Amino acid sequence: MHDIPPELLGEAILANVQAALTEDIGTGDITAQLIPAGRTGCARVISREKAVLCGTAWADEAFRQVDPGLTIEWHAADGDAIAAGQLLLQACGPARSLLSAERTVLNFLQLLSGIATRCSHFQHLLDGTSARLLDTRKTLPGLRLAEKYAVRCGNGHNHRLGLYDAFLIKENHIAACGGIAQAVASAQRLFPQRPVEVEVETLDGLHVALTSGAQLIMLDNFSLEDMRRAVAITAGRVALEASGGINEANLRQVAETGVDYISLGTLTKDVKAIDLSMRLVL
């Protein structure tokens, strides 16, 4: 599947944090001004529940943008399983700066750790099967790369990053192009280096897609029996992705049909933030 280019991720971290701090601090943190300007202290971030940690680079960048003089010491890394009550980081420096950065730091850590934790849970449900878990484009606006990075920290895999790096030819594209074969041929002519995936809704559509030259075929809302038939028909000629109507209850059954990938929008769109707290010691 797709990797996030490091330079794009770095740019996203800078932009994400800048936007979050602008939104939160605006023209200045008036409450932090209650603290004497020269007062220093240390802030400790602690997990209140079991989770998979994610978002350390966003937290680091938030502290840096607020005050480059803050010192940060991490006690866990992205992708680590963390326990309730565990110390995750300690940041020291001017108390005003620590308080101004607090909400942005926690927002990123809580959201991205929530995604990583959810992905890890779903990935464990696939243990012993060959199916791989994929995310989708159902992400919060402006946080696409951050959320897809969190999927990776939870041992999931990234589908295409956006509309620019791979084709996913769906029902409306097929209708507009006059058929699956025509749509795939046009895609390969326009951008021959881009991967081409076709969505099909029936076994008849699968037969057509198999001769089209697509590298990946999405089985949209197939029954378990039709997924098994699709795997037998395809016989490894192209990779198959199952999508639609898949949840925690039937995920394992879908994997056991023999499909190569399972995509789930719920990995990023139905996430419960992890409960973290920051305590300031002056």
Q: How does this model look, in words?
A:
The protein is an alpha/beta fold. About 40% of the residues lie in helices and about 20% in strands. It has helices spanning about 5-25, 55-65, 95-125, 145-155, 170-175, 180-190, 205-210, 225-235, 250-255, 265-270; strands at about 40-45, 50, 70-75, 80, 85-95, 130-135, 165-170, 195-200, 215-220, 240-245, 260-265, 275-280. The strands form three sheets. A six-stranded parallel sheet has the order 6-11-10-9-8-7. A four-stranded antiparallel sheet has the order 3-5-1-12, covered by helices on one side. It is elongated, with a radius of gyration of 22 Å. The N and C termini lie far apart (about 50 Å).
Report the end-to-end length measured between terminal Cα atoms. 48 Å
Which term fits the overall shape? elongated
Beta-strand segment tally: 12
Q: Classify the helix fraction into a percent range.
A: 40-55%
Average of pLDDT? 96
From the helix content, strand content and strand pairing, which structural class follows? Answer: alpha/beta
Radius of gyration: 22 Å
Q: Kindly estimate the percentage of residues that lie in beta strands according to DSSP.
A: 15-25%
**Unreliably modeled segments:** none
- What is the helix tally? 10
Order of helices and strands: HEEHEEEHEHEHHEHEHEHEHE
Give a quick account of the main beta sheet: strands, pairing sense, barrel closure. 6 strands, parallel
Strand line-up in the sheet with most strands? 6-11-10-9-8-7
